[in-house]
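Protein: Glycosyltransferase 61 catalytic domain-containing protein
Species: Diversispora epigaea
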Amino acid sequence: MINLTTIAKFVIRKTLLILIIFWLFGVILFLSLEVSDREHLTISLTEESTSKCRGEGRAVFCEYTNFCVDRKNGAYIVNRKDISKLANVMNADQNIDFFWKPKVKSRYPAKAQYINDTLFAYGLYSPVHFSHWMFNGLLPLYSIMRSYNATRNAWLLRIHTYRHQPIRMIPQDISFLTDGKEIVFDSFDTLTEMQVLPPKVPICFAKAVVGFGNRCSLNYCENNIPAEHYEQFRKDVFSHFIHNGQWELYKQKKYKDQRELACIDSTKIYAPIVSNDKIYHTKVIIGVLQRYHTRHILNADELIDALVKQNYTVKFLNFDVGCSLPATAKLLEDIDVLITPHGNGLGDAIFMMPKTTVISIDNRFYSEAWFTYVHTASGRRFYNFQCDSGDCQVADFELAQKGLQEDGIRMSYHDLLEYLGPKYPYRLIEKYYVGDDKSGYDRYAKDAVRRVDVEKLVKFVKEIIEEWPMVKNKSFIELCEMGKCCGPWCSDALKKNVFAKGNAWGGVERPIDAETVNWKAGN
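Structure follows.
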């Protein structure tokens, strides 16, 4: 006769054994997950979100706890009261400010994915324009992440994009920032493996930072990016993409867009003069960046020949064909002096060594100080180089007629010849441009083709290189105090980024010597 008690004990023992095996299997599986995966688990949240906002006006940014994102609701926090506040997620001029706050819900979803780390919510300015993307978007993002000691598990949330042109965008790998994902709201923004759309199942973060306090190095930003963040940014990009064998791995990747490495293939190297089977050269590398749509340097070949005759190695660069962030860094890493027409390419110098020199080839009648700001903050010597001679001026009829047509101006042929002549056309500007906006000629002069005074520029480059022993033994601050870090129109940039309270170089106010004159390139 079967003993029921014995059977029951047997069944219980077997059941317990099976449960223990499953429990052990679960523990082993859990421990085998990466930290980021273990923290990305489905749980029930009960604690209400909290908020803390700092700054005033354009500089407001906010911190939240238990910040959630999903496809149906977008970004939101959970609290019985509306504790959110509008924060500016852009880092540019006042016309581009974008104030945003998360939605407020009264209760959490039944289940949510949870990441025990920080989400950084930000706005992006003109991602098709490398320098705006870099100095108004990527670097402010990097700076706030450094300020909060962001881990490799942090995530990003792109709230807003200004001047969005998806068709022109090159996929940009920003994985040096984090191993986390970047949540975007439009499918055409999923350009790399890093970008993802909001999930159907809500994903909640332990913390979120919304906005950066309107920080950038330009005159229109309320707060500054510390100089040490620029240098650490540069080091992080090289460490992640270039050094220790990473560049070879990067080149072997499969690319969605062939433009990512096009600049590498198009680069030409001009070696120093060879004589009697010996190469006479210095270790100086000069970068010459040409533009092929606007601001083209007509006598770039003459400039290259003259530089090579001085026994410099010249890298002739073309970024119009396309260039990724890592490829840009690779090309600029060893350049000592970068020469380029005013524009986007001047921002590439962020990857040059500190205290190297950047020269902007400006039109005879147009120059601006935009890049003076970013380079006085990041520690590179920057000069605007204008040729005052009529020999350097080129009449760009096609560009001028296109601009006049866009402005709704019909100009006689005789006036057009004067408009493009050797003198600044004050009379015609007053005649044809009615009202306060008289910037049509400046727009033309900014983009017109140009020549460079080769003799004066090569002389200036030689003077820069001769100063290297002095530069090597001085800090960037000391160079600025000597009038040797920028010129000629850099007084406002120096005030914001070097001398005024809250500057990029430690924030301490420094006295300005009224007699210090910043050297004008080419004098």
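Remarks: Residues 395-447 form one domain.
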